[in-house]
Batch of 2 targets.
Target 1
Amino acid sequence: MADGFSGIAVTLVRNPACLLGGVGLLAISLLVPFLGREGRLFRFEGEALSLTPLALAGRHPGFWVLLILAVAGVAFGLIRQERGYRPALWGGGLGCLLVLWLTWAAAVKPYAFGPGAMLALAVCLLVLAHGLSQGGYIRADTFVVACILALAFFVLLFILFPLLAVLRHSVMDAGGLRLGLFLETLRRYTALGRVLRNSVGLAIFVGITSTLIGLAFALAAARSRSRLTVLLRAFSLLPIITPPFVIGMAIILLFGLQGLVTSRLLGLKTRGVFGFPGLALAQTLSFAPVAFLVIASVVESVNPALEEASLTLRAGRWETFWNVTLPLLRPGLANAFLLTIIESLADFGNPIILGGEFEVLSTEIYFAIIGRFDQRLAATLGLILLGFSLAAFLLQRQWLGERSYVTVTGKPPSGTPMPLPRGLEVGLLTFCVAWCAFTLAIYVSVVTGGLVEIWGINNAFTLRHYHQLLRDGMEALQTTLILAGISAPLTAAVGILLAYLVVRHQFPGRGLLEFTSMLSFAVPGTVIGIGYILAFNQSPFLLTGTATIIVISFIFRNMPVGIRSGVAALAQIDQALEEASITLRASFATTIRRVVLPLIRPAIVSALVFSFVRSVTAISAVVFLVSAKWQVSTKVILDQAENGRYGLATAYSTVLIVIMAAAIAFMYLMVGRRPALGGLEGGGLA
Amino acid sequence: MTAGGSPRAARVVLEGVSKRFGKTVAVDEVSLTVQPGELVTLLGPSGCGKTTTLRMVAGLETASCGRIYIGDAEVTHLPPNARDVTMVFQSYALFPHLTVFENVAYGLRVLKRPEAEIQQAVRRVLELTGMPGLEGRSPSALSGGQQQRVAVARALVMQPKVLLFDEPLSNLDAKLRKRMREEIRLLQQRLGITAIYVTHDQAEALAISDRIVVMDRGRVSQIGTPLELYRAPANRFVAEFIGEANFLPAEIESAGDGWAGIRIGPQRLRVQSRPLPAGPVTALVRPEAIRIRTGGEGLRGTIQKVSYLGSSADYTVETELGPILITEYAMEDGVRAPGTGVGLEFLPHGVVPLPGAP
């Protein structure tokens, strides 16, 4: 913005930022409808001019202030002043607050915020950015500062604001703020103790099993010289391309009432798998690969010199393994443990299919809204779930979160890592191959499930389910792919831009911005789901029932994927490259286009693909946001599975898995090497 | 690219330039004029503000106060891409996704010069830096010295008003470092470019510079030609930083226009000096300006330590004035043994009186 002004700096114009801001605001005030009808952002049917700020000023005197501000902007644009940034700073800042307040005050049913409000906010934000940049409050040009402000606004609106809405609904009712309300709601909810015990117990159990299995896989994959390690790495990708509840479904196929193992092989007629055993198994299968990714990166970063030092000090391989290698992995193990706890708490798909009588928090929240229409109970339970997840997230960050990506040096340690003790290697490999075989059986049963008439009862081959899928399921599939396709580039752009700002720029609130945006990793999808419902189903921000809200939820749920790949990629790029480009006459934009973007292309591709995959397989947040018009595949599958129609559900899952596998294969082709999978640690698969 | 880049060479003036990062003052009121075609080195230990000063000239940092001029224009608040200054970075900062040719052509392409002109200019400058025939290579396929040359070529091809070097040789091994510094100097003189060069290596600074700016904790300690800095350091910091030095208690007994009569231990000498009042001073004595007398004349002492370095030998001699370091080049008598009693004679060309007792 600053650069563009110098060209048109006529002697008459003393403060181009204020002038343009004022003129822009004036134009919006006279011409653009500030508000819109609920649910129809850009269609006005003749009442557009009655909704401009000028027209609204009769009803809401606050709009006069906006007009005065616009005129003041023009005036300041023409008056000579010592410190030109001051009017921009104050005017822009005041304008932002004013527009927000006016939106709040004026956008009441049946009206919601409209294009004018958005444009006015954008103009004020730009002017404020110019003031902050020129005044030296943030050392960057106007464009960069505007990006920072815009991102901060979106993060506040779409991450923090929904969480605050959850908080508000649990402690406020018609009578105003009552802190006792929270406890009151819980007292009336008699299942609380059992649900908490179930959720926490399951999370800890799954945390332990997943971490142990992840460790076994990580050691085998990183340290064994066997060719089987390729298999183990491929295994790491499976849960990423799988909708979260597919494993739960497969477990029913294998161990349920008509289960292949229970009914066919053992001749049992049991529903025993529903509840804790089935859930623990399904979640371990789902989250062990996440633990594997986390631990593997730590195993690979262990400096071989330490093990070599131990070996030269007369320790054998076993002693070195126990006394050096394993203690060095401790942070990775703790990290994996906490992440899988977060995952397990947040998991929604498996409990809803496999839970049976075994209630957990995430499903209870869903039933509170969908079954009992009790928003307050949902918000209260959501707050408790959020508390657990946040505690685990904060612990993880406190202990090791900082180290998890800051230590990317791009410099591989020298030396060859010590091979595992022979006995251990054989043991680990055997276990891992067996586990892989089990995983494979899961997927085989999913694929076959879609190809038989009725699993366990009539096992005749049929394409019936696929025909039905073509007839009934295509619309949801199309919606899913379109929405995910829209959100993926936006997610990658927002995430990588944020990573760039956080890595390369110093500004007040930088740590907070990063923390809040990474927060959506830890916030369970169900909590974000009710948060969005509570925050965005009323004026002024009315979005529920639209495709927009689904896309927004995808973006802000998956943004950390982009941030992580961006941070990791940028940390490996010497800042001198950008400086060299700038001293060679290139502008900021040219530098980004010609130097930064080509160098972080792999990160961009992987962020694109992973956010796409995660959007398609998402269920926990989106289940609250879908509507008759905007239906997504995962919800359709879930409905089928809940009704026991496993044929259609598994056929549909198979299709999704194939599409996801193709997306991942495409990424490998584009990137040409093993992409950073870091974005998926703590992947919030739920 | 014309070989005589000198018409573009510009004067650089820094007027009371300071840089604060929060509360720490990285650069404190630095004033300096670099003449067109001159190579000036900013020399100092790490953290002395030399790189920050250079980056302010480049525009990569903004001065907290003071003014910077390049040619006739004030550039203090101009962004780097509007300054007509290029820089050779410590890490070379070659774009890894571009070939050697594309790296060198980068700036010209940003300026949208005609392709034919770019081709010609790039080939010419690669020839000039001794790198013909490697245009298609990727930077990662080059040796350190070659990468260095590409970095220099990329900066030169822009025909900048000022060329900046930020410790450009610190990633090379000792032998190559010596050769590259000679080449850089030769190229700079041939093209007549104004250059500012940052280094912490005093030998490099002495070898390459027209003038050296010694910096200490953000301030300019002394500005002078290499000879002036070595022969007449303004203070103890400069004397210690450039070359080796002994600081011995001494006394001024008489003084005149540009000279002083000084007594060090038993010896009286007449040396070049700025005006100093009679009385106790510190005598800076260069190790190579001390002659060892086996006969025992002069300051008496005993050899404590011996380091044989091939072309020379370093001795530490314990005397009544404290331990004294001596470098001996002509070793007609071979290497002396520790414990030998010797006499020391100071040579006037290597003695500088500094105010104050040691």
Note: The two ends of chain B are 54 Å apart (CA to CA).
Target 2
Amino acid sequence: MSDSVQNIKTIAKRELSGYFASPVAYVFIVIWLLLNGFFTFSLGGFFEMGQASLTMSFFRWHPWLYLFLVPAVGMRLWSEERRLHTMELLLTMPITSWQAIIGKFIASWLFLIIALALTFPVVITVCYLGDADLGEIFTGYVGSALLAGGYLAVTSMTSSMTRNQVISFIVSVVVCFFLLLSGFEPVTDLLPNWLVGIVTSLSSLTHFIAFQKGVLDSRDLIYFGSLIGFALFLNGVIIRNLRAG
Amino acid sequence: MIKVENLEKHFGTKRAVAGVTFSVERGEILGFLGPNGAGKSTTMRMITGFIPPTAGKVTVGGHDMAEDPIPAKKLIGYLPENAPSYTDMTVYGFLAFCAELRGLHGDARKQAVHRAVEMCFLEPVLHQSVDTLSKGYRHRTCLAQSIIHDPQVLILDEPTDGLDPNQKHEARQLIRRMGEKKVIIFSTHILEEVEAVCTRAIIIDRGRIVANGTPQELKQRSEVAGAVSLRVIGVSADTVKIRLSSVTGARKATIVKEDANSVWARAYPAEGSVNGTLARGVAEVCVKEGWKFEELHTEEGRLDEVFRSITWSETGKKEEKP
């Protein structure tokens, strides 16, 4: 047991330091922070709203920002291993493919969480300007991190399908877009009533919004947990099939 | 140490490996030969546990690779084809990472990396990023990775591919040195390498083993093995040919080459002729006829010829032998 934890740690450490070894990580973080600032203060109308809340001005944009930024972070996870043939090296080490999948996933997720944590000035701003509900902000952040994890698991899966990062990026954007749209009101309004409940319950957006209300509902936690679990499970199946030829 | 039984691998309808059986013991260096696409790499990938076999079984040190892969993999060091490595890491970082996955931490890790770096002459590039390295260094980096945990079994897929002659020589010496205490399987299509390094060679063609023996034994299967070649001056080719074929112990004689004053001829031994009889016979003829010969030697047999004859006849493209 401790062996597998150790292996996961080793793989995660390599993957995470891989991000920071290249300028891509810093470029990504800067773009992410700039976009966040722009959407929050400009489009989100943070000041005009006159509320000490981040729900409508800040968190609201995350599902859409993540739609492109998370696949950009995760697209190389497995496709690069396949392109460089390092997958053969990695999977002939005395580790299981699950340890590799989880290690890589955790590293990318940590990277996204670091990027998310760097948005802390907006929390300071809102606390300085008014009497913000810190509980609500906290659950908002938890929801945002879980949403990023869900998208990331999908990206990890799609990146194992191809050795081309661009294809991996596009496929994961499409899949995440469907997860998003199925809870987007303009879309769900078009659906017949009996279907709405099922479709929206499968949407990442519906469950993400629930966190913004300051509630940690077990259903939402289970939703993101099972989305991550399912996508990573498929990831494992794809890799097993690749090896079986 | 390694036992491979009836190993098969199908890709769709294609049978890449069609029933391979062999075993290797400690102290053996097994050369894996075969034309491109013969199933060498596929077989090695199955031995290392990268791909599961369609049928058959691989056991490494008593551990079944399919049932109990982790302890089996721990015994193996593997250099995959084209020596892949993480190009965004430094040589040191890469080796340290591999050592950690092999369960080496702290001081043990540091020592293991140091030892591997020394054995593969990587000091000059230790802190360079892998993608700035020349092919030879990259290759050695990946080789260093395979020996970092001092494994009992080494599986090397074309370890000298893409190296310059000096590096090839170094790599061969390294393999020979390590082969004394380990089990080594390596694939190549350079035949001189097999002669220089291997204690045993397996020739594989279209997914089957077509020959298995020491390089000496394989060479014996060559047409020219045991034949006596000579070069004489001032005699016509026809005379030489007729006289040579009537030597005791000769099956037939051929003219290899002739020019203005020399004739290169070869006498082939009859079946069951004792080693040396033919050479003596040929020498006696030369002396009796008063031929001035400038060269006379017994052929050892050539591996490339054996290789060609075996793999060609198998693929049905049999060619006239020279």
Note: Chain A has one domain: 2-244.
